[in-house]
Design goal:
The chain has a single domain, classed as 5'-nuclease (Rossmann fold, 3-Layer(aba) Sandwich). Helix content is 42%, strand content 18%. It is globular. InterPro entries: PIN-like_dom_sf, PIN_9, PIN_dom. This is PIN domain-containing protein.
Length: 142
């Protein structure tokens, strides 16, 4: 089930986005795309895995009005990302897919999920996350 992220015509580094990362602009009024470019000091290509898109769609159909509304706003942001189809086995969680793809491809991940960040760092994958509700930070090297 190895996933290859094809070389793209866009210049720069690839960064896989976790679903919760798309909630930052809604919750904290921070432009994640602009802030990420400032942090990395270079152009980058935001990557949306098919499993993450499915997760966002599931959240949009949530019974919680707040979660549903935030997920619908997040889905609008995914238009700025390059879509990468990946396979998800029935035993894998959405986070498992991100860890697998990021580890195989050596691509940093943007997430605010503390447990996912820990798993990624243990696998040697760089992680970008929000700190103090106002800025993005990089843990690891790209």
């Amino acid at each position: 089930m190895k996933t290859k992220l094809a070389a793209s015509k866009k210049v720069g580094l690839k960064v896989i986005f976790d679903a919760n990362f798309f909630f930052i602009p809604i919750q904290f009024n921070l432009d994640i795309f602009e802030e990420l470019e400032k942090l990395l000091k270079k152009r980058y290509e935001p990557i949306l895995l098919s499993s993450t898109k499915k997760e966002l769609q599931g959240l949009a159909e949530s019974t919680s009005t707040k979660t549903s509304k935030q997920a619908l706003n997040a889905i609008n942001l995914v238009e700025k990302c390059s879509f990468v189809p990946v396979e998800k086995s029935s035993t894998e969680t959405y986070d498992d897919v991100i860890v697998r793809v990021a580890t195989e491809s050596k691509i940093p991940v943007a997430t605010n999920d503390r447990n996912l960040r820990k798993r990624l760092r243990q696998s040697g994958v760089a992680v970008i996350y929000m700190r103090q509700k106002q800025r993005l930070v990089l843990d690891g090297s790209v």
